[in-house]
Amino acid sequence: MPAPKVDSEVGPLRAVLLHRPGAELKRLTPRNNDQLLFDSIPWVDRAQEEHDAFAQALVGRGVEVMLLADALVTALTDERAHAAAADTAVDRRRVGHELADALGSHLSSLPSAALADVLTAGMTFEELPDAEGASLVRRMHHPHDFVVDPLPNLLFTRDSSVWIGDRVAIASLALPARNRETALLDLIYAYHPRFRAAGRAYGAHSAPVEGGDVLLLAPGVLAIGVGERTTPAGAESLARSVFADGLAHTVLAVPIAQDRATMHLDTVCTMVDRDAVVMYPAVRDTLLAYPLQPDDAKGVLVSGPVPFLDAAAEAMGIERLRVIDTGLDPVTAEREQWDDGNNTLAVAPGVVVAYERNVETNARLEDAGIEVLRISGSELGSGRGGPRCMSCPISRDPV
Ligand SMILES: NC(=[NH2+])NCCC[C@H](N)C(=O)O
Q1: Contact 388/54 with Cβ under 8 angstroms?
Q2: In CATH, what number does 13-68+152-396 get?
Q3: Burial track 186-206 (b if 16+ CB lie within 10 A, e otherwise)
Q4: Residue 132 pLDDT > 80, yes or no?
Q5: Residue 191's closest CA among 98, 88, 299?
Q6: 0.90 cut: is pTM over it?
Q7: Has the ipTM of the complex gone over 0.95?
Q8: Which residue has the least CA distance to atom 4 on ligand 1?
Q9: Which atom of ligand 1 lies at the shortest distance from residue 229's CA?
Q10: In CATH, which superfamily holds the domain spanning 71-148?
Q11: What ligand 1 atom has the least distance to the C-alpha of 264?
Q12: For a substitution probing ligand 1, which of 384, 390, 391 has the most ligand atoms within 8 Å of its CB?
């Protein structure tokens, strides 16, 4: 079992945290899907098949796959985790005082596996056992309203935690639909035996930073997208934290458009080799960066903005960063960007997992000498996330 450590985007992947989508996806309806950050209603069985094939593609390359639900159940077997977990699921503002205590004691009485199910798939008022209070809140809510919200975006394990060197940063997720995910990751990293020795970087209660915005361009060099999710304060505070821990010498804060299509930096740019990225052509020449460096007096020294590609190459100590893009046809490029064509997961330098539907982007990757492991994502993609979003590398060999 390799020790947790990740210092690049492309070093041979040894272990990864995935979440096999489950009952939480069955909660999505046309009424709640926007709020829950899905663009359509996925066919769950097919999404699971696609996810199994994704996991299998990784296992076939020698990667150990850890599943979030299993890790959560293991963590919850620790009594302290079990007690804390029930607390994280009770939102007093929503359920009111009368029901909060009853809900808390109901959750505390559940075995670990059943508790993990509620924490991930949520619970409706109807599913709460009758004995648990007849409060006004309970009587006035519709039976299908959620007493505990489902977490369909757990699928995107990239966003909720990030390994930087041998430390793990629990993200601070910006939107209410995803907020509670961090509480689950917090329990896993605190109580799963495998992670007991792991140090923390950053804290769950700091300004918003999401893992999809964090790219480990090279050992000691991070890029952090700032846009719809990660805030300027989030990028600054993660930079302070990695500088203080000696995990990086340069952080590039990269402004990205505040749009659904580009909610994270990894929707427009991911690394496919030591010195190459796949990038959305529309941002290729306009992406900027504010280079940040540690400074004894000020904490964080800011310069720029300068062109991202130049700043990245300089910080990485290479002459230039090769860019593979989606071609010159802007319509194809826009379609494939939306379908996560730029969101690849490297399993080794020059070997990436990508959605098969992005035919043009994949062909251009292959023309540039990159090996592409294709997976289908017709259902998985309905939450707007590709192979990189759906994976949190725990261990990579050095590049
Ligand atoms: N790293 C990523 N690009 N993650 C995609 C996350 C998609 C998810 N539905 C959300 O809106 O949060």
Answers
A1: no
A2: 3.75.10.10
A3: bbbbbbbebeeebeebbebeb
A4: no
A5: 88
A6: yes
A7: yes
A8: 389
A9: 12
A10: Arginine deiminase (1.10.3930.10)
A11: 3
A12: 384
